[in-house]
Amino acid sequence: MPGPRLCGRPVHALVAGLLAVAAALWAAGPAVAHDGDDDARWKDKRKQYTAGVSVPLVSTPNVHLVTNLPDTAAISGCFAKTAPYFYVSSLDSVSVFDVSKPLAPKLTGVLDNLVFENEAVNCGEKEEDGVTRRFVLVGIDLTQASSDDIAHVRPVGFDELMVVDVTDPAKPSIRSRTKTSSSTHTVACVRDTACQYAYTAGGDGKVSIVDLRDLDAPKELKTFSSPVLGWAGHKWNFDNAGYGIHTAAGGTAIFDVRDPVNPKLVTTTGPEGTAPGWNDFIHHNSDRPNAAQFTPGAAPAVGNGNVLLVTEEDYENTDCATAGSFQTWHVQKLDGTPDAIRPLDRINPVDAGEGVALPHEAFCSAHWFDHHPSGIVAQGYYQGGLRLIDVRDPENLTEYGYFASGLSEVWDAYWVPERTANGVATGHKTNIVYTADLIRGLDVFTVDLPASGRTTAAVPLLPAGAGQDAAGSWPEVAVTVGPVLAALIALIVYGRRRASRGTGTAES
Questions:
Q1: What angle in degrees, to the nearest 10, is found between the helix axes of 483-500 and 13-28?
Q2: CA-based Rg of the chain, rounded to a whole angstrom?
């Protein structure tokens, strides 16, 4: 019987060696994160799911499961802006999906890539000699190996950025890489359609600015400090008004990044950014919709560009009613006034009082989200599934809908962009949601949006339960899960535990 294969390619001996080293590292790490064996939980659930175990699916009538692509244990994804592609990073690969028919994504290319953890793969584009080059940025926390670049297998090591060229959707390939002096847990382009510079998550008291003007030779240009780093930085999100939002263990900070090489601190969440309930572990990611509409002193409203949406992750808390929340904050001023971001409201809809809480949920913190112009946020809550949150009144957040499964771990949720006939994103979003699920893979949903929500005529809403069997379960598709994937799942446990010991590398 042939040895393990990733995406149809044999695993190179050095890659196998990497797994052995990774397994040894994991075995040596003390169990300081979750109660019980996280590795066993992930492997067991993925094994059940891919074996075709039929499980109940619980959802509100306004959320409709369209299809499932179980072939990749999805961690994160991003959409190209100038072509209809969705890129998925998993524990063992980078996959390219053609989404010109968004209800039926089609796998077009795969790069085998064993990596921990790259939980926020970032899309970038830039012009080179009149050609639009598309690429994704892969942050390497702990380990990485690919048959596409055997010379640079990293069985152990930290803080490296890898550039994967996806210009040819059938042949994604590693183009370059560079070391940095701060955590690359996440890396983000300052301007995604003209990506010359990127910022790292940050750690050890600093954030790295990576020069991407030459994609064949990226380099750390300089570092700068962020007052909210605390024990770790986590994510940079950039708005459409020239500001960058840094979420981290010490809260959230806004920087003026109109000169991306010389970012200037504007304001922070201040002491409230680390207050109990508002930040019990880390501010994880953010968004400031309609940022260009900001007017100082205006009442808090998403349409006014002065409401900051924030995930507060607290994955070590096994009480689903309090394990991390989705939050709104009022950005009062952007003139350099300290502590000008004030809390408005927070919600954890996995609480049984706010929706449905399934008995298995002991890993259900708020995680990555995406805002729709209709005022509905789609968010992953790990085992709490997909949750939809209504932010039209930022001072009174409510649950709008949900989808959950007994075998699921939703890391991220994305509203599919609307596109022109040429495949270019228009800036509007459809009513379609993709979720990156470590157990189920890639799920596709449609959502009945509020009356003011934009729905593309070419994207029909499906009736509730479309595609499900008579018992209300989705017919699961069996795929093979080999020891390579299992070993990579083990790395997540080690990495999270390492992070929780305060080493300066962020968690998930």
A1: 40
A2: 21
Tokens at 73, concatenated: 């244990």
What contacts 290, CB < 8 A, 6 or more positions away? Answer: 302, 303, 304, 305
| Six token digits for residue 45 | 């659930």
Nearest in space to 356 (alpha carbons), one of 312, 397, 309, 388: 388
Cis peptide bond N-terminal to 312, omega within 30: no
What SS3 state is found at 486?
helix
Specify the pairing of strand 251-256 against strand 243-248: antiparallel
User: Nearest to residue 343, comparing CAs of 297, 274, 278, 254?
Assistant: 278
Per-residue pLDDT of the chain (508 residues; tens, 9 = 90+): 322 233 333 334 444 544 454 444 444 333 233 334 565 666 677 777 777 776 768 899 999 999 999 988 899 999 999 999 999 999 899 999 999 999 999 999 999 999 988 999 999 999 999 999 999 999 998 889 999 998 888 766 679 999 999 999 999 999 999 999 999 999 999 999 999 999 999 998 999 999 999 999 999 999 999 999 999 999 999 999 999 999 999 999 999 999 999 999 999 999 999 999 999 999 999 999 999 999 999 999 999 999 999 999 998 888 888 889 999 999 999 999 999 999 999 999 875 445 555 545 568 899 999 999 999 999 999 988 999 999 999 999 999 999 998 788 999 999 999 999 999 999 999 999 999 999 999 999 999 999 854 443 334 333 333 333 322 333 333 333 344 444 444 445 444 544 444 445 555 6
CB 76 within 8 A of CB 89: yes
Which H or E run includes 15? helix 13-28
Question: For every residue of 336-362, which 3-state class applies, written as one string?
Answer: CCCCCEEEEEEECCCCHHHCCCCCCCC
CA 274 to chain CA centroid, Å, is: 22
Where does residue 107 rank: exposed (0-12), middle (13-18), buried (19+ CB within 10 A)?
A: middle
Distance CA 130, CA 156 (A): 38
CA-nearest of 247, 251, 239, 374 to 294 is 239
| pTM for this prediction | 0.85
Q: How far apart are CA 342 and CA 16, in angstroms?
A: 49
* Torsion (CA) 361, 232, 368, 185 in degrees, nearest 10: -110
Contact 59, 467 (CB under 8 A): no
The CA dihedral of 238, 137, 184, 338, to the nearest 10 degrees, is -10
Q: What are residue 77's DSSP bridge partners? A: 88
For the chain, the straight-line distance linking the first and the last C-alpha, in angstroms and rounded, comes to: 36
Quick one: tokens of 148? 């596409």
